[in-house]
Structure formats: C-alpha cells, structure tokens
Amino acid sequence: MTDKAPDPTRRNERSRQAILAAAIELIKEVGYARVSVEAIAARAGVGKQTIYRWWPSKAAVVFDAFLALNPAAPGELPDTGDIVADLRLVLHATVAEFNDPDFEAAYRALNTDVQDDPALGERMREQVLRPTLATVKRRLAAAQEAGQVRRDVDLDVVVEVLYGPFYYRWLLRTGELTTGYADDVLTLFVRALSG
Amino acid sequence: MTDKAPDPTRRNERSRQAILAAAIELIKEVGYARVSVEAIAARAGVGKQTIYRWWPSKAAVVFDAFLALNPAAPGELPDTGDIVADLRLVLHATVAEFNDPDFEAAYRALNTDVQDDPALGERMREQVLRPTLATVKRRLAAAQEAGQVRRDVDLDVVVEVLYGPFYYRWLLRTGELTTGYADDVLTLFVRALSG
C-alpha cells in the first residue's frame, strides 16, 4: 500500500507524542491515581476518542509514556571487568528509579494493572522485564567466561534471584528500598555465584 | 462493661463465620473477579450492610476468609537438623499454595488490592508476611547456631532474598512457578549462606 496521505500520518504521530507527554506531565502534577483519560486528552488537545482509538485504558497509555521516557531495551550493562561493581551500579539505579517520587505511584499502579490486563502484562514482560533480565544475563555470561561466576547455574533463575528481592520489598513495603539493601542483596547474590 | 447481651454476640459471630465461608465458596465457584459483596451477603444469609459494617471492601472480607482458612502465624518450620531439607519442604508448599487453582486469582487480586488500600496492606504485612518471614528467620537462626549458616548476614534481608524470587516470578508471570524453580532458588540461597 502506498501512503498517499502523509499529513494525517504526521498529525497522528504528533497527537501520539502529545498524548504521551501529557500523561507524564499530569502524573507529575496530580499523581497517577487522579489522572484520567479525559484529562490526558484535554492536556494533549485531542478528543478522548482519539486516545481510546489507540489505547484500551489509562494504564496502557501510561505504559507507553514510560516506554517513551526510557526507550525500549536498556542497552548493555557496563563491563568494567568487575561484575560486582557493574551490578551495583545497575541496582543502585533501580533503587533510585523505584523511589522516584514523580513516578513511584504510577510504577506501582502499572504493576497492579497488568494483573487484570493480560495484554498489558505481556507487553510489560516483552518490552521491559525480559529485555532487562536479558541484559543482566549477558553481563553474567561474560563474567562466567571471565571465570568470575560459576558455570553450573541457570542464568534465567539467577536474574530473578537478583531482582526478586527488590520487587518483593518495594511492592509489599516490608522495608525501605535503599542502596544499603541493594548492597546486602548483592553480597549474598555474588557469594551464591562464586566458587 | 459487662456483657448483658450474649445472644447478639453469638449471632454476630455466626454471621461472621457464614460470611467468611460464603466468600471462600463463591471464590471456588465463580472466581474472585466475579464475587461481589452482594453475592457473599446473599449466600451467607445476611444483608449487604452487615458486611459493610464489618469490612470496608470485598478484598478485606476475602483477606479475613483466607486468614480463617490458614490461621495466623504458620507456627514453626520443621527442624530436622537439615536446613536445606526443611526449607525445601516449606518452599514446595509455597509453590503449591501459589498455584492452587481455587485461590490463585484471589491471592493475586489481594496482592494488587493492598496497593490501593494501606490499611489492608498493613494487615497483610502484620498478619501474613512478617509472621511468615519471622518463622523462616527463626529456623535460619537455629541453623546459624548449628554452624550451618554463616553469621555475618542480616537475616531480615536473607528472608526476602529467599521469598523475593517466588513473588517476582509468580506475580510478573515471567515463567512457571515450579518445584524445580524452588529447588534452583534454594541451591543458590544455600550457597550464599554457607561458608
């Protein structure tokens, strides 16, 4: 199909960007719970139906807005040759992200909304979780090559053992998610993988 | 205050038990999402207002219904002298519980409902999570005494490192929660604590 209508396409893309930007602005201003699809539409200068044409729910819009802020896969982990230092950097960034006052409530809400929305859950896994876990897996595989991590471990399990405690403490609020906690988890993690 | 009206008290307790039993029955029959406070009331033979007098939400009723099924703290872990075997028993039970087809959806829903209901979240922590974690901590402390677990670890972190991966995989559905996964997590966990 040849595209004979470039203008609508561009206008659609402009509307889409305006909607995603409006979602982020409103979350910062009033908090996720008080953001509505109506408010996003009004801020973006589009009709509510424009949003519902492209997204089934507020959660789906917000998910895409976050993805636009943190595009796709997180690239590669640093590889300084020191697996502990490299993981610490990433885990401290995770702690900061989970505690970001602008977005914490929205991250939490997305984590609950995906429970009732299988399609959104699959997007979360495909576009956020699995790429993140795969990045850590690649760094760990390099550490295996370098003889810093034992080879008789299933890296698919290993990466969930690393991230699970963060998710648990953060979502269940059993304690503060601090860099000190990250360091303690990392110490145990590294010991489990050594030798 | 002396109790001059024993009958209403007993009747209240009977109603309460009927409501909790009705909640469990309905969850098994139609699934958590389709259970309403109205349906619980009808099944229990009480008015909807009776439920709302005692509980603020469906989630709060269901939480108490689960507590009634699995009363309070989980007692003590077995102590056969073999910390790995004892933990394996508990973790396999956790896997079975999380996968219980009658209750999986309700457990998931409670885990999301607590995000929007701080009072319910605090009850979840006080009456379920912390007692569970404390039980494992006591078993690990005994293993420390027995020289099976190193002493330079913070057991509050350690227990979240143990349960975090289960919660992560189960709630985010990154993979199947199996006894094989439990065994892999346990192997890593034990290695982190040895030496």
Overview of this structure, please?
Two copies of one chain form a homodimer. With 195 residues, chain A is mainly α. Chain A has two domains: 8-54, Homeodomain-like (Arc Repressor Mutant, subunit A), CATH 1.10.10.60; 83-193, Tetracycline Repressor, domain 2. The first copy, chain A, contains nine helices and no strands. Chain A has helices at 6-30, 37-44, 48-54, 58-69, 83-99, 104-116, 118-145, 155-172, 179-193. At the A-B interface, helix 6, helix 7, helix 8 and helix 9 of A face helix 6, helix 7, helix 8 and helix 9 of B.
List keywords for this structure.
homodimer; 195 residues; mainly alpha; Arc Repressor Mutant, subunit A; Tetracycline Repressor, domain 2; 2 domains; 9 helices; elongated
